[in-house]
Amino acid sequence: MAGAFGWGMLAASSLVIGGVIALLFRIGLRTIGLIMAFGAGVLISAVAFDLVEEAFGISSGHGWAIAGIFAGCAVFFGGDWLIDRSGGSERKDAEGGQQSGSSLAIVLGTVLDGVPESMVIGLTIFKGGAVGAAYLIAVFISNLPESISSTSGLVSSGWKKARVLWMWIGIAIISGLASLAGYALFQHSSPDVVAFVLTFAAGAILTMLADTMMPEAYEQGGKLVGVLTTLGFAVAFTIHVLD
Length: 243
Prior knowledge:
Largest sheet: none
Number of helices: 8
Radius of gyration: 17 Å
Number of strands: 0
Shape: globular
Structural class: mainly alpha
Order of helices and strands: HHHHHHHH
C-alpha cells in the first residue's frame, strides 16, 4: 500500500516541478500553449493504449468498458460544471484569468483534473499489466505543462509564489492518496470491474482534455499545437511499445 502511495506521489511530483520551473523562469504564452499541446498528445496516447485497450483486453464483455467511458465523462463533466460555476473555470489559464475566480474552486478543479489518472496508478502499478511504467511516465510528462500554465496564470493573477507552490505540493499528496485508494479498493476486484475503472478514468481524462487543456493550448499556441500534440502522442506511444 505504501508503494501505491509513493508511485502516485512520484507521478504527481511533476506538478511541483512544473510549478518551480514557472516560478523561476519567465515562459512565453505561446511556449506554454505548445507545451500543453505536447502534454495533451501524451494523455491521448495513454488513454488509447494504456487504458482503453487494456480494459478491452481484460473484460469479459465490452459493455463494462463502454459504460466506464461514459460514466467517467459524465462524472467529470458534472464536477467540472459545478466548479466552473463556483469560479474555477480559468484554472489552466496562463494569462491570469484566475484573478476573477474562487481560490477554493481553482484548487478543487485542479484536484478533479488529476484524481482519475492517479487512481489508475494504484490500481495497475503492481498488476504487471500493460499500464505500469508507460502510463506512469505518461502521467508524469503530462502534468508538467498543466502545472507550468496554471502557475504562470496564478502568479499573474496575484497569488503569492509560496501559496502556489504549497498548492501543488498538497495536490501531489492528494494524488498519492488517490493512487492508494485505487490500490486498496480495487486490487481484488474482478477483471470487469477493473476494466470499468480503467475506462472511467479514460472518459474523465478525455473530457478534461477537450474542456480545459486543449482549448487553452490552441488559444496560446495557434496552429502549431497540432504538430506538438502529434509529437506528444508519438512519444507516449513509443514508451508504451517499449514497456
